[in-house]
Amino acid sequence: MRVMKFGGSSLATPERIQAVADIILENVKDETVAVVVSAFQGVSNQLLECAKLAASGDKRHEEVYQGIVKRHHDAIQTLLPANNEAITQATNELLQELTEILQGISLLKEVTVGAYDHISSFGERLSANIIAAYLNKYYPTEYVDSRSLIITDDNHMHAGVLFEQTNVAIQRYYDDCQTRQPLIPVITGYIGKTVDGRTTTLGRNSSDYSATIIGAALDASRIEIWTDVDGVYSADPSLVSAAFIIPHLSLDEAIELSYYGAKVLHPSTFIPLTDKKIPLVIKNTFNPTYPGTLISDMEVNRDKKKTAAKSITAIDDITLLIWRGFGELDVSSTIERLFKTLSAASINIFLVLEGSPKHTICLAISRHEIPLARKAIQREFNLELQHELVSIDEQPGQSIIAIIGDEMKMLAPDIAGKMFQALGKVQINVNAIIQGASERNVSLVIDSHQKTRALNLIHQSFFSEFKTLFIVLIGAGRIGSALLQEIREQSMALLQRKIKLVVCGITNSRKMILNIDGIDLENWQQLLEASSESFDTTQLLKTLSQIQCGNIAMVDCTASDSVVANYPLFIQKRIHIITPNKRANVLPLTQWNKLMSQFKRHHCYFLCRTNVGAGLPILTVLEDLLSCGDTIYKIEGILSGTLSYLFNHYDGKRSFSEVLKDAEKLNMTEPDPREDLSGMDVGRKLLILARKMGWSAELSDVYVQNLVPEALRGKDKPTHFFEDLNHFEAEFKDRLRAAHQRGNVLRYVGTLENQTATAELKEIPSNHPLALSVHSDNIITFTTGHYHETPLVIRGPGAGVECTALGVFSDILKLLSKLSH
Ligand code: ADP
Ligand code: MG
Q: Could you tell me the CA-to-CA distances from 33 to 5, 16, 171, 185, 221 in Å, in that order?
């Protein structure tokens, strides 16, 4: 015999009820079945609302009541379009009874807890009647009012079950049932009755409990709780998208989980099962073939893969009640009185913390019970409060997060550390942390508004084998596009290394596309083109703030000062920045220092290896040398791809201007080639290297030789620039010839030495490393303490879209290696 319980979430619409009936009819083929049902989804709340409105003389209770009437009549019409006289009459009788009670309340203008219980019993009575009538079309079925089965004390709204009488009543009913034809009893969940016949309820959402009471009384082979999720998850799936199903839970784990807020199970569910070995299964009415979660001690022992943490739960609406005793007070006896007082008032204390100074006790209590607790304490400690020997304070708006698992006790210190680390990094304040008395959980108290974030982060740090980095690309130009291509091509290989890159934003100067689930990189161009959203940093940051866990990196692939001006906005949100854009690194010194300290303060990484030498590891090698304690005497190099090309190819046979034109054709120059010839790009790179070495330098401290003849330097680019430049060919040629005569070559060289930085055209001996450059290579030499006789040389393509994009990509991987998860 099996008990199947269907919660409100499975009974939201007539269509859902049909699906429920299919499930029941499928099961009854294997074994006899008893069904327990809740009210239709939302009806219990509407009934309580009705009662409250009626008691306050508010006529709107009639509207709410009419809504309830319609809901049930509609269900009858859909489920039983014909032959529905009996069920319509039974329903109308119940509704009539309900309306009379509501009228009584609105006349009296008061509602007792007993009346609340009576009114809320209608939800289950209406739904069980209708479901029984519908099922009866396919299989003999009987409506059972659980008030004839479940006998309770008179603690209304939270009644205690009198098990002896209850078990007898249930067994007697079932025996009687067996003597008749095989039939399915459809039993109301949630409600019971006192010995003297008054209606009671077992606590909000307690139909799960009704099912286990009945299942235990009848020694059911199994009890199934059917709901709207596939089983018990590692965290509430509506808050933590990465949550996954737990196939097996021990009874103790399940008890702890339900007590600490996992809504999928009512905390009382396990009371009847403690000395019965009845397996409990949580299943999904939307996905009936899925095996669900099995809660059973026997099965769990077979579970090979044991993990310390099984699930993470949260309880909301917690207030911390802070009690302090002062002076000559006998603290231990006073504390004893405090607990006695609260226990007498039936206050449920979730956590107890001893604070410092040691006369402080901090209690986590549900917000709803605070007025009662306050009143009880005020009454008991009236004198002490008057004489200021005792004080009570409250800290509302708290949530308790509990991490639960049988194996927790072995690892508790480790786990506490892990949680602090996960939360501290994103500035979530932990107001209290405690290992539960059962040793099966570690709980912490945080501000409620940080709950979802904290749940996600803790979940990730305990369960995720993946490192996830969310990326937003600003500037989808040539480098940005190449980077996206690289990310797309590498994504499978990265997944194998347990790395997930999620590109969640792409912008150009006009538009943007945002999607925190990840943008399809197959066709991002079309998506961006079609986007109606204009590029807006505020909106972008707002979307990024929806990311609950995982690190975020902004990749700035622009050459824009205005993007740099917004870096602090990203840093404040703890978004790391990766960029080939040199503008940030050449800001005036005070601004640059400020920006760098912002990165530090917010624990953000700023990775910009492509600022010098594109993909070449120039900055990374410099960092390495410095971190090894090496002394840098001199850095000398060819740092501009364009200028490298020009002097590698200018041999006097073709004019300097013609060679420049070739470079332009090869896409190697800026739109205005005077920018390349100005040497400023080399100057900026020198400044970046200098600052890396700790020099307090400004761009104006770098001597930069401008190769553009004075006459051609104006603001606008001369229309016939290449012809005009040809007029100066004699000067270039003289310089070249003179060098050649001395056995030297011409190179545009950047040098850092003795705290001075110069970028200029130089004659270099033809056997010097810098003379060996070809194509548009960069070459850089480090003369250091360790590399004194022969300098360390790095040589290779130091410009170009592909190299730069690859360099940015390696910064992304470097960032991932720096992040712990
Ligand atoms: P029913 O109406 O069937 O009793 P409930 O709404 O009471 O359903 O419980 C199911 C809901 O519990 C799920 O939709 C889910 O959002 C929530 N929930 C909270 N924590 C968990 C968890 N750890 N595992 C599964 N569901 C959870
Ligand atoms: Mg429930």
A: 10, 19, 14, 8, 10
